[in-house]
Design brief:
Blueprint: E1 2-6, E2 12-17, H1 20-23, H2 29-43, H3 103-119, E3 123-126, H4 136-143, E4 153-157, H5 162-168, E5 174-178, H6 184-189, E6 192-196, H7 198-207
Parallel strand pairs: 1-3, 3-6, 4-5, 4-6
Antiparallel strand pairs: 1-2
Helix pairs in contact: 4-5
């Protein structure tokens, strides 16, 4: 498979070969859905947490004696029936939402997502992608030369580039990641995939072992 390579000015400067086993895979929507659901579940952070009557501070002493007062018997002021008491059946941070997915399924779904980008002309390959210093304006001027200027895009880098990551951080519809860390969920969360042609070699070495 051949793909067009652009320079920073948005002009065609040549072509490059794409591995068919990565960028020309038959798409199975059910498999992609299964992998995306598992990746979303594995990223989920449990924040809400309530305390039971055993964890709420106070209530160690019986508020009044068991008999003779005419009031209902109470063992603790931290009962769930009382104000400031514990919570019954509330959300707990011990909940586990993780879903196991096979490595082969995960890898195949990634290849399907990459193939979908190629088939829908949503893959933009550059001959090189570097910025001299960490300025949002520099990366914004580069992206404005391409169809992704008003759309969301994921930038896959062959190596860690601090200047480029800091430059793209303030753009609301742009996210950067290293090519070795590509995943199905991130690819489907952004419309365009932008990467320098060196990233193809990194993807091949990482996922075609």
């Amino acid at each position: 498979m051949k793909a067009v390579v652009y320079n920073r000015e948005g002009k065609e400067v040549g072509t490059t070969l794409l591995p068919k086993e990565i960028f020309d895979v038959q798409i199975n929507p059910d498999l992609i859905h299964q992998v995306v659901v598992s990746e979303m579940a594995n990223r989920r952070q449990v924040i809400s947490h309530t305390k039971t009557r055993a964890e709420v501070r106070g209530g160690g002493r019986k508020p009044w004696r068991q008999k003779g007062t005419g009031r209902a018997r109470v063992g603790s002021i931290r009962s769930p029936l009382w104000r400031h008491g514990g919570v019954t059946f509330g959300p707990r941070k011990e909940r586990i939402f993780k879903k196991k997915i096979n490595k082969k399924m995960k890898k195949l779904a990634l290849f399907m997502a990459l193939s979908g980008k190629v088939k829908n002309n949503l893959l933009i390959l550059l001959d090189k992608l570097k910025v001299e210093k960490a300025k949002t304006k520099l990366i914004s001027e580069i992206l404005e030369k391409f169809p992704c200027k008003k759309e969301s895009c994921l930038i896959a880098l062959p190596i860690y580039d601090k200047n480029l990551i800091l430059s793209a951080r303030n753009l609301p519809e742009v996210m950067t990641c290293q090519a070795k860390d590509l995943n199905t969920l991130d690819l489907l969360s952004f419309k365009y995939l932008v990467m320098p042609k060196e990233a193809i070699k990194v993807i091949k070495e990482t996922f075609l072992k």
